[in-house]
Write a structure and sequence with these properties.
285 residues, Lambda Exonuclease, Chain A, six-stranded mixed β-sheet, two-stranded parallel sheet, Put_RecE_PDDEXK-like_dom, Putative exodeoxyribonuclease 8 PDDEXK-like domain-containing protein
Length: 285
């Protein structure tokens, strides 16, 4: 069940958490602000997109590293990926047998994964646990803690789900194409992770989980061998920007909800110019 009282909870079902339409998450906050808009937020709330299979690997890695998540069902090419002549298909996951087995697993609430992906996720887990900083972070703590609080200014109910909670720290696990620190600043900005960090820090206090803002840590692990791990955190300037954007999103949500109006980008004709990178270039038509 979805909690009705503010607080922190360790037993909220993940599917129930994501089905909650009575509170605002940081993912929703991102959809309200540019480059998105309230109309897109509303569409996502009214017609939630179905789970995308390409997210399954990240879910698998989280389950193995955090020790909490859906039950895993491993599919093997030599068992579930056969062609009509009994030989293993070049792409086992495209066979009827595989698709049928995967669908049956999902109907039972399980996560179907290939044996290859399972071994890769195990290697990612081992890399994280062997890292001198990341490993100890996951040595003690609680996984998948759900936080709920009511915003004092607007009365909007807020929620968040932290990957890992330990004394004085909140830890978020990111499976990524790169763990190169030189690339993470741009990648993190693209996905507005400064909003996530600030959101959870504030929610940790307002939900009663902590009395002071905890440190927010990202553990990034690459999805291909050798599964490089990097631990990063935002500086104060980035966290302040995230907090500012979160406040904008909460206020906008409250306004849209009160008026039952969820605007798109603009109702008027917009005059545009050349993109900055094209100003000094010759454009051929």
């Amino acid at each position: 069940m979805i909690p009705t009282e503010d607080g922190h909870y360790a037993d909220v079902d993940e599917a129930e958490y994501h089905r909650d339409r009575g509170s605002l998450s940081v993912s929703g906050a991102k959809l309200l602000l540019p480059p998105s808009c309230p109309a897109k937020f509303r569409e996502a709330m009214d017609n939630p997109p179905p789970p995308k299979p390409h997210f399954d690997f990240g879910t698998l890695a989280h389950a193995l590293i955090l020790g909490k998540g859906p039950e895993i069902e491993i599919l093997y090419p030599e068992v579930h990926g056969l062609k009509e002549d009994g030989t293993v298909a070049d792409v086992p996951s495209m066979t009827g047998m595989w698709k049928k087995a995967a669908a049956a697993a999902r109907e039972k609430g399980r996560l179907p994964v290939s044996s290859e992906d399972y071994m890769a996720a195990q290697a990612m887990r081992d890399a994280v646990m062997a890292h001198p900083v990341a490993g100890p972070l996951f040595a003690d703590g609680d996984a998948e803690v759900s936080l709920y609080a009511t915003d004092d200014e607007t009365g909007v109910r807020l929620r968040g789900r932290v990957d890992w909670v330990r004394p004085g720290q909140l830890v978020d696990l990111k499976t990524s194409r790169t763990a190169n620190p030189d690339e993470l600043a741009g990648l993190f900005f693209k996905y507005r992770y400064m909003m996530q960090a600030a959101w959870y820090q504030d929610l940790s206090v307002t939900s009663g989980l902590t009395t002071e803002k905890p440190e927010f840590i990202f553990v990034c692990v690459e999805k291909v061998a050798p599964y490089v791990v990097t631990v990063v955190r935002y500086d104060d300037e980035a966290l302040a920007e995230g907090e500012f954007m979160n406040r904008e999103a909460i206020q906008l949500y409250a306004k849209c909800k009160a008026n039952n109006e969820w605007p798109a980008y603009s109702d008027e004709t917009v005059t545009i110019g050349l993109p900055g990178w094209a100003v000094d270039e010759e454009i051929e038509i």
